[in-house]
Design goal:
Layout: H1 2-75
């Protein structure tokens, strides 16, 4: 009977070690995912700023385009 308890204890200890190791690996993966997420958020912020800059540049260019179309229509 004692042998069964010893084997059961060893199996439970092995399972505990397995789950703790798995938990540690998952924690490491979660940290990596959070790092990637923060990098993606920073990249998205930079892209949003670029979009704002391009939109601000587009307004004068669209006005120039309208003026040039008017000039070309008068020249016809």
């Amino acid at each position: 009977m004692i042998v069964i308890y010893i084997i059961g204890g060893i199996l439970l200890l092995a399972l505990a070690i397995y789950f703790l190791d798995r938990r540690e690996k998952m924690t490491h993966e979660i940290k990596e995912i959070k790092a990637y997420k923060s990098e993606i958020d920073a990249t998205n912020q930079e892209l949003d700023e670029l979009i704002e800059q391009l939109e601000s540049m587009n307004e004068p260019l669209s006005k120039v385009n309208q003026i040039s179309k008017k000039i070309l229509s008068y020249m016809k």
